[in-house]
Amino acid sequence: MLKRVQDLEKLAKQTKAKTMAVVFAQDEFVIEAVMRAAEIGVVKPILIGDLEKIESYLPKHHDLKIVNQAEPDLAAKAAMDMVNSGEAEIVMKGLIDTKVLLKAVVNKEYGIRNQKLLSHVGIVSYPDFDRVLFATDGAMNIEPSVEDKILIIENAVKLARAIGYIEPKVGIVSAVEKVNDKILSTVHAQAILDYYKNNEPKGFLIDGPFAIDNLVSQESVIHKGLEGPVAGKADILLFPNLDAGNVFYKTSVFLARGLSAGVIIGAKVPIVLTSRADSAEAKLYSILLAVVSQHGLLATDN
Amino acid sequence: MLKRVQDLEKLAKQTKAKTMAVVFAQDEFVIEAVMRAAEIGVVKPILIGDLEKIESYLPKHHDLKIVNQAEPDLAAKAAMDMVNSGEAEIVMKGLIDTKVLLKAVVNKEYGIRNQKLLSHVGIVSYPDFDRVLFATDGAMNIEPSVEDKILIIENAVKLARAIGYIEPKVGIVSAVEKVNDKILSTVHAQAILDYYKNNEPKGFLIDGPFAIDNLVSQESVIHKGLEGPVAGKADILLFPNLDAGNVFYKTSVFLARGLSAGVIIGAKVPIVLTSRADSAEAKLYSILLAVVSQHGLLATDN
């Protein structure tokens, strides 16, 4: 169990440095985070993009590999080719439009998707809470169906197991604990549990629906008289939809002063897709999360 | 502007003590909160319910008014009658099913609803944030329509103005800042803004859609290049639906260690509707919020 997002640094240093293709690297803050990750020895970056602009953000003497490609589509394709050839073990988004990068990821000819669905998994730790929480999906999937949610769960479980969780506890988030026909998230929760009654979950526990308090507070669980292995002890929170997941992630970072990291799962390699609003720290930790998960993801895939 | 939920105590003490009908008061924690509020002199409670049970939670010598009524429907009706006669200025839910109480509130003969829609407004303050945030609606309205959301906004504005905000800033919450046909919360945000183009907002400012960071963090607003009077400075957060609002409220309390209070607005008097999971502190602050708002709500109604 990961206690703090900061612990990713120690874990990352225990693995072999990973090659990372940065698509459209010509961004001051992206380069800053990549350089920090390279300095601590956990990634070997390949910076793809506008050579002149990239070099303007780098010190005069550096040993970073740069691939000059000023066309966004072609820069994204170059990264996919590197993954397919084994040259890149992680992909990171730079100053390229997210849509352009993801279009390349799912391209049927040269894309790198290896699951039916790509999803974002964020992890957050708090100044005053005993463990890291995995939140999915507050960044990619807008209104996932029950089938989508099952894939989102399995992507998050794959990530958690890749970074060392033996049996992560998945809690299905709603506003209430009772199934109510008028609250879609509870109906979905019931359908997901029904699915796992017929298809035993492999390497994780799952329960729901729960409001947030009954996933993170033993006191609330006792108050409510709830039972089971997930109540009060969840590791992975499955959110009803993009809005609710995003509210959780942003509230955690901007009001709860949490530390966060995030990656996209569902492709052959982890994809680091930070946003401008992420701090340099959050960008670095997202790279570290990709590094730590990459080895485990390969292991569980094969 | 309220900096901390704790500041409600000082404000409440400045007003005349309010009579408060507690429906089915036979609950240890409800009585504890009511007694504390009575001790600091801000409410005069009328405890409605099972006399014997109520007295079992009270000291032998007390001067609290008790109305013996062991039937839930009739206990709720008794409270409504007290509001209609002017005997009660606040209603508080005790050990009664929320549905039974609300059925009485909206009853056409003796009910006390005075707006088309009842909604919950929570307020939260954080250990490390400069102001209180109003969150609506994370407790009552499941999937509000655009029309419902306009009423929810106006209920929250009424509350904020009643406790002293001259021109509260309302931010419409989503996961993103751009209107996207696939994200209903952004489509609703646009429709709400369009409505207020034709119906000038009275005594408040409104803008959206915004993700949480761009409602509470000036740094994020600058990063994103956003403008306007609400970005980064919101007082009232309008959530897309029950799930998202509930996630915000619970994350604020249980992970961000926020202090909270909440009331239902849309009836002739504020309704205090705390849940078992609320701490004694949260229950007390909800009573104080009702006390402080009650005077102002009357003023704005007339």
Estimated radius of gyration of chain A: 19 Å
Q: What is the subunit arrangement here?
A: homodimer
The low-confidence runs of chain A, each spanning 5 or more residues with pLDDT under 50, are none
Structural class of chain A: alpha/beta
Average pLDDT of chain A works out at 94
Largest interface, with counts of residues having CB < 8 Å to the other chain, equals: A-B, 45 and 45 residues
**N- to C-terminal separation of chain A?**
24 Å
Q: Helical element count of chain A? A: 11
Order of helices and strands of chain A: HEHEHEHEHEEHEHEHHEHEEH
Q: What is the topology, as strand order, of the major beta sheet of chain A?
A: 8-7-9-6-5-10
Main sheet summary of chain A:
6 strands, mixed
Describe this structure in words.
Two copies of one chain form a homodimer. With 302 residues, chain A is an alpha/beta fold. The first copy, chain A, has helices at 8-13, 28-39, 51-56, 72-85, 98-105, 146-162, 184-198, 213-216, 218-224, 242-254, 280-301; strands at 18-23, 43-49, 65-68, 90-93, 119-125, 133-136, 169-173, 205-210, 236-238, 259-265, 271-272. In chain A, the strands form two sheets. The first copy, chain A, has a six-stranded mixed β-sheet with strand order 8-7-9-6-5-10, sandwiched between helices. In chain A, helix 2 (28-39) links the parallel strand 1 (18-23) and strand 2 (43-49). Chain A binds chain B through residues 126, 128-129, 133, 138-139, 142-143, 173-176, 182-185, 211-213, 216-217, 220, 223-224, 239-248, 250-258, 276-277, and chain B through 126, 128-129, 133, 138-139, 142-143, 173-176, 182-185, 211-213, 216-217, 220, 223-224, 239-248, 250-258, 276-277.
